Amino acid sequence: MAATRGLRGDTYLSERPGQLTDLAREATEGGAKLLVAVGGDGTVNEVVNGLANAPDVELAVIHRGTGGDFVRTFGISHRIEEALATAHDGATREIDLGRATLRTWAGREGSIWFANIGSAGMSGAVAKRVNESGKALGGTISYAWSTLAVFARWRNAQVKVTVDGDEKSGAMFDVIVANGRYLGGGMKICPEAEPDDGLFDVLLIGDLTKRDLVATLPKIYRGTHLPHPKAELLRGRDVLIDSPEPLPVELDGEQPGTTPVRFELVPRALRVRVPG
C-alpha cells in the first residue's frame, strides 16, 4: 500500500525495546531524508531519540498504536490511507522537542528526548500501569480506566516546580510539561499548547478529590477543563521538578524513571510531515 502512494525505501523492523532509536540513527547516517514511523507514541519517541541530531531529516507517522496522542495535535489521520498520503504529499512543519534529564530505573542519570508530553506524578504511574497491564480495550478506555484505578490509591506529594526561575511548591498530583496538546489516549490536557512556539505549557495539578476528578475528566477530553481552581498553567523553556519522594516520570507514554527531572525545550529541532 505504501508503494502505491509513492513511498519506497528500506524497511526496518524493531525486535526489542529501544532498537528503533538505533535503527533511526542508522538510517539517517545512511543518507535517509524521510523516515516513516509505523506505530504508536512509544514508536515515535524511540525514532525521535534517533533523529535528535539530524535536523534535516523529516518524520512521517502512520499511527498503528494505542494512544495516538502525538498525531492528534497535527491532525494526522488515524486512517492508514490518509496518513500515507500525508507521509508522501504533506507539508513540513518544524517543531520543538523536549529533553528530559532524570533518574533512570538503573539509578543513573539519563537524558531522553520527547516530542509530545512529559510529566511527573500520577500520570507516570498511569502510563506504567497501562504498559504493564495491556491495551486490549483500546487507548481511550485503557487510559481512562487506569487513571481512575491509580487515582483511587494515589496520594499527592509535596512537589517543587521551577519554571524559568519561577518557583512553585505545594501538594500536587501531577505536573504536565506539554509540547503537544494530548495525552492518555485523547485527553486534551493542554488545549492551547503549540509545538513550535518555543515554550512548554506547564500544568500544575493540585490536591484533587475524587469528586473533582469525576466532574473534570469528561471536560479534559473536550479540552474545556481550564481554568480550574485546583490547577495552574505556566509557560517556559526550562522546568525543574523535585519531591522528597521520587515520583514516576512519563515521556510520550513511556515511563523511563523518576524525579528529580529537568525538562529543557530545544526549538525547531524536528521536521514533521503534516496534512497540507
Compose a concise summary of this entry.
This protein is an alpha+beta fold and 276 residues long. It has seven helices and 13 strands.
- Gross morphology: globular
Order of helices and strands: HEHEHHEEEHHEEEEHEEEE
Q: What's the helix count? A: 7
- Give the mean pLDDT: 93
Residues in helices, as a percent range: 25-40%
Could you describe the largest sheet, including whether it forms a barrel? 13 strands, mixed
Q: How many angstroms does the end-to-end distance come to?
A: 21 Å
Into which percentage range does the β-strand content fall?
35-45%
CATH architectural arrangement of the largest domain: Sandwich
Rg (C-alpha, Å): 18 Å
The figure for the number of domains is 2
Low-confidence stretches: none
CATH C-level name of the largest domain: Mainly Beta
Describe the protein in words.
This protein folds into two domains: 3-96, Probable inorganic polyphosphate/atp-NAD kinase, domain 1 (Rossmann fold, 3-Layer(aba) Sandwich); 97-267, Sandwich (Tumour Suppressor Smad4), CATH 2.60.200.40. 28% of the residues lie in helices and 36% in strands. It contains seven helices and 13 strands. Strands 1, 2, 3, 4, 5, 6, 7, 8, 9, 10, 11, 12 and 13 form a 13-stranded mixed sheet that branches.
Tags for this model:
alpha+beta; Tumour Suppressor Smad4; 2 domains; 13 strands; 36% strand; globular
